[in-house]
Specification:
Radius of gyration: 17 Å
Order of helices and strands: EHEHHEHHEHHHHEEH
Helix content: 40-55%
Strand content: 5-15%
Strand order of the largest sheet: 2-1-3
Largest sheet: 3 strands, parallel
Organism: Neoaquamicrobium microcysteis
Shape: globular
Family: Belongs to the aspartate/glutamate racemases family.
Oligomer: single chain
CATH architecture of the largest domain: 3-Layer(aba) Sandwich
InterPro entries: Asp/Glu/hydantoin_racemase, Asp/Glu_race, Asp/Glu_racemase_AS_2, Asp_race
Number of helices: 10
GO molecular function, one term: amino-acid racemase activity
Number of domains: 2
Protein name: Aspartate/glutamate racemase family protein
């Protein structure tokens, strides 16, 4: 089994899900007491969020690059970045790193295509919804992503940072997210990408009317496949 290097903490809430899900998948796949070989570097999200808010993406990329290199030195065979938003600096993060990165958008696009779908709604941080670093990869894979209205994007982003990243889950926010998802479906979305690693705390297949692709779960499945590949 290859060693998965996880660069996480952005936020800690989602990194907990990554660890739990990878362990569950390994146990289901291999049985017995099996668990995945992991190296986890969990950062202080307050420092990263401050760089995001200030638009200091160059500095953020350098910080993640140092951590990616550390994971490589520690023995990781490949990397996963346990956050959608910080894939904005994926190229900078991988500068000088010789092991591969399993990109979360590529894993998600592959899952949607495999299901025979092509017009996913995207709920994520404002950075991920409004900038091209993520949607361009979906388009390059042949998908037609649909993003929420401006008001719905603002609400989606606020709930992520003010609540979900702090492990706060409320019925009101769940209802708000269900409404946003419903409006995306009404505009023609045939599936829904939970494009922030915390969004799955509020939405799942039980409250969305189209197939749901939780990027955290999809990413974990792809990572375990890569770890077990010969």
């Amino acid at each position: 089994m290859k060693t998965i290097g996880i660069l996480g903490g952005m936020s800690a809430a989602s990194t907990q899900i990554y660890y739990r899900q990878l362990c569950t998948l390994a146990r289901e796949r291999l049985g017995g007491l099996h668990s995945p070989d992991l190296l986890i570097r969990s950062l202080d999200f307050a420092a990263i969020e401050a760089l995001q808010a200030a638009g200091e993406w160059g500095r953020a990329g350098k910080r993640l690059n140092a951590e990616a290199l550390a994971l490589e030195r520690g023995g990781a065979d490949f990397l996963i970045l346990a956050t959608n938003t910080m894939h904005k600096v994926a190229d900078a993060m991988m500068h000088g790193v010789s092991i591969p990165l399993l990109h979360i958008a590529d894993a998600t696009a592959h899952g949607i295509q495999r299901a025979g779908l092509g017009r996913p709604g995207l709920m994520a941080t404002a950075f991920t919804m409004e900038q091209s670093f993520y949607t361009d990869r979906l388009v390059a894979a042949g998908l037609e992503p649909i993003i929420p209205s401006a008001d719905d994007r603002t609400l989606t982003h606020r709930i992520i940072y003010d609540e979900l990243c702090r492990d706060i889950v409320t019925d009101d926010s769940r209802a708000a997210y269900v409404g946003i998802a419903s409006r995306l479906v009404a505009r023609g979305a045939d599936s829904l990408i939970l494009g922030c690693t915390e969004v799955g705390m509020l939405l799942d297949q039980g409250n969305v009317s189209v197939p749901v692709f939780d990027t955290t779960l999809v990413h974990c499945e792809a990572a375990l496949e890569m770890a077990l590949a010969s």
